[in-house]
Amino acid sequence: MENKNEVPLTNMLVYGQEGEEMVFPMKTSDLKIGDLIQVEAGEQIPTDFKILVGELVVEKDGKDLIFQKGNIAVAPFLVKKGKAKGYVFSAMEDAIYAKKE
């Protein structure tokens, strides 16, 4: 059973002066347009983001959807397989599928 007090986290990426990549857990609700994030298998896409590197496979209506480099990966799909990095494209409340509900 899911804990109602648990805050959803997303992996935010930051690059140091030497170009080293650092990953920090961040509250999904704190994501801003332009933040660099990483999403991988077993995680939920937190908000719409443009994929810069990698590929994600999600399921919609029993069919696999593939998000590749250059695509906008849309929330709130659960990632079946893959790993991708990209820039947050919209705030959570403005996500493509959030508008349909």
Would you state the CATH class?
Answer: Mainly Beta
Looking at the structure, what is the overall shape?
globular
Distance between the ends? 24 Å
Structural class: mainly beta
Number of domains: 1
Question: Number of helical runs?
Answer: 1
Q: Tell me about the biggest sheet?
A: 7 strands, antiparallel
Q: Which residues form runs of ≥5 with pLDDT under 50?
A: none
- Total beta strands: 7
Order of helices and strands: EEEEEEEH
What is the name of the CATH superfamily?
Calcium-transporting ATPase, cytoplasmic transduction domain A
What fraction of residues sit in β-strands? over 45%
Q: What's the rounded overall pLDDT mean?
A: 90
In the CATH classification, which architecture applies? Answer: Distorted Sandwich
The amount of helix comes to under 10%
**Integer-rounded radius of gyration:** 13 Å
- Under CATH, the topology can be stated as Calcium-transporting ATPase, cytoplasmic transduction domain A
What does this structure look like?
The protein is mainly beta and 101 residues long. The chain has a single domain (9-100), classed as Distorted Sandwich (Calcium-transporting ATPase, cytoplasmic transduction domain A). The protein contains one helix and seven strands. It has one helix at 96-100, and strands at residues 9-15, 21-27, 36-40, 49-60, 63-68, 72-73, 79-88. Strands 1, 2, 3, 4, 5, 6 and 7 form a seven-stranded antiparallel beta sheet that branches. Strand 1 (9-15) and strand 2 form a beta hairpin. It is globular and about 45 Å long. The two termini are 24 Å apart. The mean pLDDT is 90.
